[in-house]
Amino acid sequence: MNWQGWAEIALTLGLALALGWPLGIFMSRVWNKESTWLDPVLKPVERLFYSASGIDPDKSQGWLGYGASLIAFNLFGFVLLYAMLRLQGILPFNPQGFAGVSPDLAFNTAVSFVTNTNWQSYGGESTMSHFTQMVGLTTQNFVSAATGAAIAAALARAFAGNREKGIGNFWADLVRTTLYVLLPLSIVLAVALIGLGVVQNFAASVTATTLDGSSQTISVAPTASQLAIKQLGINGGGIFNANSAHPFENPSPFTNLITAIAINTLGWAAFFAFGRSAFARKEIRALATAGILILGAGAAVIYAAEAQPAPALVAAGIENPINMEGKETRFGIASTAAWAAQTTGASNGSVNGMHDSMMPLGGGMAMLLMMLGEILPGGIGSGIAIMVVMALLSVFVAGLMVGRTPEYLGKKIEAREIQYAMVALLVVPLSTLGFSALTVVWPGGLDSLFNPGSHGLSELLYAFTSATANNGSAFGGISANVPWWNTTLGLAMLLGRFIPIVAVLAIAGSMVNKPKLAPSAGTLPTTSTLFIGLLVGVIIILGALQYFPALALGPIVEHFQVLEAVAAN
Amino acid sequence: MLNQARPAIVSMLLFSLLLGGAYPAVVTLAGGALFPGQAEGSLVRNAQGEVVGSTLIGQVTTGPQYLWPRPSAAGDGYNAAGSSGSNLGPLNQDLIDRVSSDVAAIREYAPTGDIPPDAVTTSGSGLDPEISPQFAALQVDRIALARGMEASAVSAIIAENTSAALLGFIGQPRVNVLITNLALDAAQPQATTTE
């Protein structure tokens, strides 16, 4: 560990948060249908969407209607992507001649990209055609991110409204977030990344004759266009198997800095957009403060863990035995630690180093950051929505302790909202731990594990944590491309995505009907340092209590085994 | 639900055209026009115009007159059509065995000097085009001997091809293996024939 490393981590996390502020104001204007400087170009495109689809964008929907539209859109997106994957062999732009993918892999992949997870049971450069990558996967990178943003837009309206019925129009939120926020940023970022070395072409591959005189086949792809939205949309699915560790996706420390900022910045922007649209800037600033504190602590733990002596290097007598296994020379441990925290704190899942080869506490912290609910800052909109649910719970708990009326952002919190909140929060550990336990006892379930011992259990736990949290990163040694894993991980992704979404929309539907109350002497202040502390406590205690027993059998026991192995040398 | 079908289907198809067709096409055209070399894959060609590699993609080099890259877990080593890390956990016996045999291999040509961690670990991609300046320094004597060059001349070429961390603290200092090897060949062309 050195000052350079700490400075890099602080800069990366800090810039992502700081850039989220102006972007959040813009995002809020888009949600609120205020004018933007992009209107002259994009208004006609937006109108085309509405007229062709028969949508009245000004019709505010109740929460059931909003939810039905969301589900219908995602359902058809799934069907279309599944068909594309199965029919890949006969579709165009397939210079390598890849065949259609198997039914279980197509199910897993289609669910994965529709749910904004981007779990990849396959290696991109050896499985997917350019057509699939672009028309299938890149498209879902955009619209799954916009689906998440729509949840936050609806919830913000619910808190802003006073005895109203509708929470907005799903189609308008979807189309506007995609066209005005995601698309322009992606174009700019993609072209800039090409300039910095990211490959972008449609060739099958390049064959080089190396200095040794042997032949090297180099896979190329339209990488920059998918990379930009993979980061900005907090998706995470790489064109190449090695994801953002691949030099074509992340050629230098500069591209690493830019794309690491892109992992988090629109997640934070959705926080600030929520604050502006719900007239609750100060309250949301408190939530962002809690989020960045936990994320910063997580990054620090990972950096410190990766700087500890690695047993294999100690055994071989290496003088400076830091854990460079699975890490790129240009990044080193600090860039990789910052990225690992950002990608798991947000529901991104791209990696610039292999998490499977991390030290136990480094990989364990990455897992814990996902287990905390993907709210640091989480996905675009889906993160702030669950963070607000956490805040509701904190206010409720505080209200129970001191006997004050629980209300948040001027809305009374009653039994119904807390029930919905518990559904949103409990489905995650239920799916993660349930599928993990089932796989341990399922015949052949453990055959897919790569590493032996406690690390193998960590691989399994990480996989179901990542799928349920809609993150998509992996302890990559696992061979997940088998029917059991493809199916169970696909179900975990569906549960972890749509049950919390429906619960949040139900909360929105209930809140929007309530009168907006002015704060009284009996209202718990939700902007104070005390509240931030309470919220951090609720988030960590919820996460730790639910998962500690499982973590104790994986990363925690492995940590002590590492200490023992290092001491033995 | 049926009244949701038309907007769901039509908007999804429009999105596919716009985001899956027009967007990558615009980016490809713009990138190809503005940055043709990078868009193509940062390829390096020799005097005959044949591609010898990409500056961004590591390749196996075994001749003693060349800088050698890190160990690689991509296929049999630097398989650029199948990027991969080793995914070995910190306590995996395979990792412990591999590191100790890599150390032994380095000690054959560099009996003294600290071995840096990147020299005996595989990268995340298996295609790492770079090594640490410390790992490059370990190889100077071997390269100088094989080429009949002064060690200081080899060190100077390595230093010319070393990149510092961005602004002194973002990322790590590093040496690009392929670019350095091409510079070595340019400085002393006769050594390219294998002895």
Sheet with the most strands, sense and barrel status of chain A: 2 strands, antiparallel
Count the domains of chain B.
2
Q: Give the averaged pLDDT of chain B, no decimals.
A: 93
* Sheet with most strands of chain B: 3 strands, antiparallel
> Largest interface, per-chain counts?
A-B, 127 and 102 residues
- Ranges of chain A where pLDDT stays below 50 over 5 or more residues in a row are none
So how many helices of chain A? 17
Helix/strand-derived category of chain B reads: mainly alpha
Number of extended strands of chain A = 4
Distance between the termini of chain A: 22 Å
Number of strands of chain B: 5
The separation of the N and C termini of chain B measures: 75 Å
Radius of gyration of chain B (Å): 22 Å
The general outline of chain B is extended
Taken as a percent bin, the fraction of beta residues of chain A is under 5%
- Calculate Rg of chain A over CA atoms: 23 Å
The sequence of SSEs of chain B as H and E is HHEEHEHHHEEH
The overall pLDDT of chain A, averaged over residues, is: 95
Oligomer: heterodimer
Poorly predicted regions of chain B: none
Helices of chain B, by number, come to 7
Family (chain B): Belongs to the KdpC family.
Subunit structure (chain B): The system is composed of three essential subunits: KdpA, KdpB and KdpC.
GO molecular function, one term (chain B): P-type potassium transmembrane transporter activity
Subcellular location (chain B): Cell membrane
Descriptive report:
Chain B: InterPro entries: KdpC. Chain B: It comes from Devosia sediminis. The complex is a heterodimer of chains A (569) and B (195). Chain A is mainly alpha-helical and 569 residues long. Chain A is built from 17 helices and four strands. Chain A has helices spanning 3-31, 39-53, 63-86, 103-114, 130-160, 170-195, 223-232, 253-277, 281-306, 311-315, 332-345, 360-371, 382-402, 415-441, 453-468, 483-512, 529-567; strands at 205-209, 215-219, 407-408, 411-412. In chain A, the strands form two sheets. Chain A has a two-stranded antiparallel sheet. The relative contact order of chain B is 0.12. In chain B, the strands form two sheets. A three-stranded antiparallel β-sheet of chain B has the order 3-5-4. In chain B, strands 1-2 form a two-stranded antiparallel sheet. In chain B, 45% of the residues lie in helices and 7% in strands. Chain B contains seven helices and five strands, in the order H-H-E-E-H-E-H-H-H-E-E-H. By secondary structure, chain B is mainly α.
